[in-house]
Design goal:
- This protein is of the alpha+beta class.
- It has two domains: 92 residues; 129 residues, Immunoglobulin-like (Sandwich), CATH 2.60.40.4070.
- Helices cover 32% and strands 37% of the residues.
- The protein is built from three helices and eleven strands; from the N terminus they run αααβββββββββββ.
- Helix 1 packs antiparallel against helix 3 and helix 2 runs antiparallel to helix 3.
- Belongs to the FlgD family.
- InterPro entries: FlgD, FlgD/Vpr_Ig-like, FLgD_Tudor.
Length: 229
């Protein structure tokens, strides 16, 4: 199936056409290239034969018209490119439904026989980085020591096993990431894997692609996804 035939593309195309119609209605009082040409022709038809329009002025007006037409064509090309780009992003986002993506959160679910993957966003180098693990009720379970790390994104994985190698029960667990900076342990941003339940187009404050995540009350912008597991 081609991109243009997908429901996502058609929905996005229809939405952009509605926006374009609204913009045309709002800008109906603006001077377009057709109006500009009619004014120029009218000026030539009604000019004084004894004092015709100066060649320099006429050429300047033609140059203005050419620039206007070029800008109009460029705007159309950019609009078409934007629609195509959004459609591609929407199609890609739809493939995330049912998969896990890492988003900014402190909670995630441990499934039987599986592990928990996450990423720490470290703004500065640290000699000691670790992740504290808690039960869903907030009971401390243990640490995931990551040692000294340079600034950047740090991937980690919790196997869901206790100190004796026995698996913890399935369920929701809490995680907190800390890094030693200037001699003190500070909390740092943590991204955990969560399942995508659905995708919303032209949503949010920016009219962008939003992901509905299991266990989270608010949708997450696609641009805020750190990693796709």
């Amino acid at each position: 199936m081609s991109l243009e035939a997908t429901p996502l593309y058609q929905s996005l195309q229809a939405d952009n056409e509605r926006r374009a119609a609204a913009n045309r209605a709002q800008g109906s009082n603006e001077l377009g290239k057709d109006e500009f040409m009619r004014l120029l022709v009218t000026q030539l038809e009604n000019q004084d034969p004894l004092e015709p329009t100066d060649n320099t002025e006429f050429i300047a007006q033609l140059a203005q018209f050419s620039s206007l037409e070029g800008i109009t064509n460029l705007n159309k090309t950019v609009e078409q490119f934007a629609v195509s780009l959004q459609s591609t992003q929407a199609l890609q986002a739809s493939t995330l439904v049912g998969r896990q993506v890492q988003v900014l959160t402190n909670f995630t679910e441990l499934k039987e026989g599986d592990s928990v993957k996450g990423t720490i966003e470290l703004s500065a180098s640290s000699p000691d980085v670790f992740v504290a693990v808690y039960s869903g009720d907030g009971e401390y379970i243990g640490d995931i020591s990551l040692g000294g790390r340079e600034a950047g994104d740090i991937a980690f994985e919790w196997d869901g096993l206790d100190t004796e190698g026995e698996p913890f029960p399935s369920g929701v667990y809490q995680f907190r990431a800390f890094a030693s900076i200037d001699g003190q342990h500070e909390a740092v941003d943590l991204y955990l894997g969560r399942s995508v339940t659905s995708v919303a187009l032209n949503a949010g404050e920016r009219g962008e692609i939003m992901l509905n995540i299991s266990g989270m009350d608010q949708a997450v912008p696609l641009r805020n996804v750190k990693v796709v597991n």
